[in-house]
């Protein structure tokens, strides 16, 4: 069975850094798009980053571009999100999700705002990890 687990959240001060991990079991990332999403109370879920594993192409929402970096370790079947220069508005529950596709368009729409219809319809979702950035 397909399982995803996000980890690495915590409490940091403004300007600090965190590294989130998304570990997969029951399948391999080959042939998948892996996305990072976040949702704060009272706000819409937003896609913030995505990697198309077939090509290694990465995508970022404007809100995190230049601060966050997505990467993968295929041997460990793990995707990472390095978050630098954190701001209070980054406070949210962060989830990783996987969708079986070879198309980079899946990632392109995942991070678009406003989100197109079905942009967040990834096939598998992991439990979230909480990131809190103090002001």
Report helical residue fraction: under 10%
Low-confidence stretches: none
Q: Provide the β-strand percentage band.
A: over 45%
Q: Count of helices?
A: 1
| Biggest sheet record | 7 strands, mixed
For the record, give the distance between the C-alpha atoms at the N and C termini, rounded to a whole number: 41 Å
Structural class, please? mainly beta
Radius of gyration: 14 Å
The average pLDDT is 95
Question: Can you walk through the features of this model?
Answer:
With 135 residues, the chain is mainly beta. The protein is 4% helix and 47% strand. The protein contains 1 helix and 11 strands. The strands form 2 sheets. Strands 2, 4, 5, 6, 9, 10 and 11 form a 7-stranded mixed β-sheet that branches. A 4-stranded antiparallel β-sheet has the order 1-3-8-7, with no helix packed on it. The longest helix has 6 residues, at 105-110. It is globular, with a radius of gyration of 14 Å. The model has no long low-confidence stretch (mean pLDDT 95).
Short characterization:
The protein has 135 residues and is mostly beta strands. It contains 1 helix and 11 strands, in the order βββββββββαββ. The mean pLDDT is 95.
Which keywords apply here?
135 residues, 4% helix, mainly beta
Topology, element by element:
Elements: E1 3-7, E2 11-13, E3 18-25, E4 32-39, E5 46-52, E6 57-60, E7 68-73, E8 78-83, E9 92-100, H1 105-110, E10 124-125, E11 129-134
Parallel strand pairs: 2-11
Antiparallel strand pairs: 1-3, 3-8, 4-5, 4-9, 5-6, 7-8, 9-10, 9-11
């Amino acid at each position: 069975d397909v399982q995803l687990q996000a980890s690495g959240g915590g409490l940091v001060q403004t300007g600090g850094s965190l590294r989130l991990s998304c570990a997969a079991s029951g399948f391999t990332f080959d042939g998948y798009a892996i996305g990072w999403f976040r949702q704060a109370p009272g706000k819409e879920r937003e896609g913030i980053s995505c990697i198309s594993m077939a090509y290694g192409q990465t995508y970022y929402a404007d809100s995190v571009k230049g601060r966050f970096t997505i990467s993968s370790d295929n041997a460990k079947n793990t995707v990472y999100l390095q978050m630098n220069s954190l701001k209070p508005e980054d406070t949210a529950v962060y989830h990783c999700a996987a969708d079986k596709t070879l198309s980079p368009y899946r990632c392109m729409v995942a991070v678009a705002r406003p989100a197109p219809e079905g942009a967040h319809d990834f096939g598998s979702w992991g439990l979230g990890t909480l990131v809190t950035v103090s002001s």
